[in-house]
Amino acid sequence: MKYEPSATADISEQEKAFRAAINNDATLSHFLETGSIQENARFAKEAIYTDPVFLAFISPYFREVYIAAICKAFEQKDTNLMGGIAANPVLLNSGHRMQANDEILLYLEEMRTKLAALHHKLVMYDPFEFTDLLAYTDVSTISNMNYLPGEFLEFRSSYAALVVKVIKALVNRDLPTSLTMVCDLCELTVDMPTQQDVHALCTLIHDADQEQRGMERDKERLYKFLTTPRRRHGYDDLWPF
């Protein structure tokens, strides 16, 4: 249901007051009409915004724009839009808020399903670009998930658990991509057990990466030792072992 700033004349005095409050709030009216929030813009601090009767009036309009804006922020990896939404009150009553959360969750579940499909390809050794996985844990995706309200903690935790499975299946085949993913995943707000799993995996992969880097340095030094002309006398300082 799209909010129209103007209305027919035959509306109640209460609706007139509600519409006047909305139309006088430049940020709120802009959000309802366009689905966007300008940087650092805030809704006016109106007492009416906590009135259950006002929330019942605005909820059908706000819910539609709210859902669309959050999905758009994920699709376009727009952390500014998501941050603006999170910084302002959610003008929904309890019923409409539950409906909005359910619809947003459906959208997020589609993202998780796509990641699960890539995990299946990974374990079945089907060909695909491993770097495609980075889109599911990049900074914007993690930030936008963290901006979601507290009701989404359970989803974030289950999403992180799936990413952990993906990384475990990937690590022996693409260590750099695994390291990037797990480092980004550490920033996701999840429940404590999941957080412990993520950080433990991050430590293991970081240690493996450091070990691999050390082996590569040793290979380089060995190559220099074998290819550099040796001195006739004295010790060769290129290989100090």
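The above is record 1. Record 2 follows with the same two-line structure.
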Amino acid sequence: MVRGRAGPQAAGPVGELSAHALVGRGPLLEAARAQLAAGSVLLTGPAGIGKSTLLSALAAEVTGHRILRCSLSQTEHHLPFLGLIDLLADTGDEILHTLPAPQRAALESALLRRTDPVGERDGLSLRMAVLATFRALCASGPVLIVVDDAQWLDAPSAELLAFIARRARGLPLRALVGQRTGAGGSRPEPRLCPPPVRAFDVPPMTAAEVTRLLGELELPRAVLAKVHRASGGNPFFAVELGRALAEHDGPLDPAAPLPVPDGLRSLMLGRLLALSSGARRTLLTACAAARPTLALLRGAGRPDADADLAEAREAGIVAPGEVVRFTHPLLAAVLYAEAPERDRLTVHAALADVVTDPVERARHLALVAPGRDAEVAATLSEAAAAARRRGAPAAAARLGLLAADRTPRAEEETGLRLTAAEDALASGEYALARGIAEEVLAHASIPAERVRAWIVLLDSGGQALAELDDVFPRALADARDDPALLAPLRYRLAWRAWLVKGSAPRARDEAATAARLAAEAGDRRTEVLALTKQALAEFHTGRLEAERTLERALSGPQDPAIRFDHNGPVYLRHRHHLLHDRLEEARAELRSLTYAVRQRGAVEDLFMCLYGSAQVEIFRGRCDRALDLAEQCLRLAEDSELSRGPAWCAVAFAEAAGGALERALAAAERAVAHSEDDGDLLFLPHSLHAAGHIRLLRGDAAGAADALRRVRRLERGQGLVEPAMRRWHADLAEALVATGASGEAAEVIEETRRDAVRLGRRGVLAVLDRASALVTAARGDLDGAVEGLTRAVETLAASPYPLEEGRARLELGRLRVRMDAPAPARESLRAAHRVFTRAKAAPWVAAVTAELDHLDVGAPRPAAEADALHALTGVERRVAILVADGATNREIATRLFVSVKTVEAALTRTYRKLGIRSRVDLARLAAAHRTGDTT
């Protein structure tokens, strides 16, 4: 279960596009920012895509430049030299007076600073005057030209800017230009921009980004999905649609057409009304169909469809292709919304007669047959089942609700609604599911129906079960003594015992009770789920019967509905493989499961398959693949109502393995915040482990120890002893050694080793050997530590865990540096570098590279450092060495793959610990160590 509150959304008033248009624009801004540091930037895209906001954001970041701006409009397009007047509005006479008289006269005339007009004979003088003016401006410092809506730049100004751009070589002159492109239009030429220039198409927003853009409106997910489709990801259009929805009276029906605001309606209608009435009728038929082809349109009563579509293509309303596609979704939305109801009904009736897909036919029938009708209801119900089978639970939920509205049999209506609610759960539309369940509870009196509705409410809460504590006693009261009703509730009490109460043993007992009740009631589905939950709790608590319980869940008849459920035994089997270091088997299990789940369409199941796959790929040393899977997790969580905690946790571990540590730590902190906000004690230790692991890699041993000690306390409190489920133990021991708590580290290692030996966890034991060697080194037995690390390297080299092998080789190299053995140290470090490079483990490659750099530049040996630098953490020591070698903070940040702020913070701590005040003192100290002079 990974559902919960989605967390905070975008702040600020929804109506202000400028406050939101940077949502999801980070990568584009980063790329444009990098280009602007060396050249010019051209931003292109359709109206409303956010070019102006991006332009403003980029210009606001520029410092040390004279910024010349012009912002243009269509109504001023015909006014000559207006763009030039805007750009040079603040250019004073002190520059103009340096120009030769003919040039000055031409420029002053163009700028309307004198009354005589610019004539044809003054054209060359004007060009040379403008060029001389820009050269004079650049002589006093770099200049940035900012032109917004360049498509409306008057022709004379455009020609002058192009003239300057062609002759700007050698000048500190750059341009930042935004220019509109039309539907299907070609990219504008960057002639206004001094080279080198790079053009960026501003992309539409994703569904998740539009959700964040409109976050404060708290619209149902299905409605937000429609806004995204209707707006085409255009932020201006999305905000306008959001305004209309915010002003809409009454409940929002996700199946109804969106209310299109007047401004957008007028914009779109102007293009549509230019078409003939026949073309509009054909397009109305097209926008009512799921997959409108020419043959379908002809069959639906549009014999001249080919001519009508040609007319629409000529007008830029639809794109070429076999299937009719509108060039912008809002064109279809406005056409459908503005059509008279009788025309819409006629179109749907015609389509119902010609379409062959049962799901689409049922939708058309429902729209043309209002009122209760048993035949229509049966058709809709059958279509919902068909949609469910083909992996479209969202469509099944909509069709099921329509069937409930149409059925004349009152005794069937509640069941149809509850089935629709369960389909909504499967599709990730939890708000819709909750609304249906609450509606059923308001009038239902049959215990089985009420309990089923309570279960929908509980399952829609996901990780945030703490908020639903009052539901359980009411649901149990409705269930009374009926085992068939009690079993699924007891199963969910098992989740609550762990998620909310933090007790795995109690969760195990509740799950066992649920399995017994389900078997008594003949409910094999609930029995299998409960046995799987029981096995999971037994694995975590180190009970040897866990494998037998899992076998009970896997044996016997399997309900197809839960075969691919992430709470079912097939999913748990991959985790069982991981306990025994069978990574390839775990990967194969998940790949097969993921393929099936994608076909089935259950959002939460797919999320958990991706989450598990990301973890397996990190173990396998496929860090690039893990990053991709973690990003898929996050996008899936953002596109649905899944809890963000697990998604950010997946991103944190993947970034720590193969990405950037700054992003990794930010993701881990968000994961912790979401898990704490949801009251989720099941995923909180995962999130804290991520935070501790990343802090350790960044050199913040104290911060790592704090986070990982908290993990240890949480797991002890929950009764968890299985060391191979969450492998944080060696990280904690390493952090403790680095902070001087080697005794506590030894205690952690010994305690974990006992459980690992008892349970046969060889992979865990190999990693503990590495940590144990660090304890040995901290106690002064360096030779014993070398022997221990050598054994760990040999064991891990034969294991399926390349990152752990690389870490052991890295520590062996560091230890040999400390022992003043540069040749063996370099050999170990280079071997670690090869391992990490193959794994594409960027942060680890950076750590090894820093160690090799220290050897290559003759850095002070750690044995000497121990006299004065023993109190420094790993990152502080590396920063100190590079400072002593004369590197700037920015150079150090680039070398170590950290931010400049991290370097500054490390230096501040170093000065405090060593009792020094400056970089000079630090360099002197390092030099003294190099010569062996400690005076």
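Confidence is low (pLDDT under 50) at residues 3-19, 859-867, 929-935.
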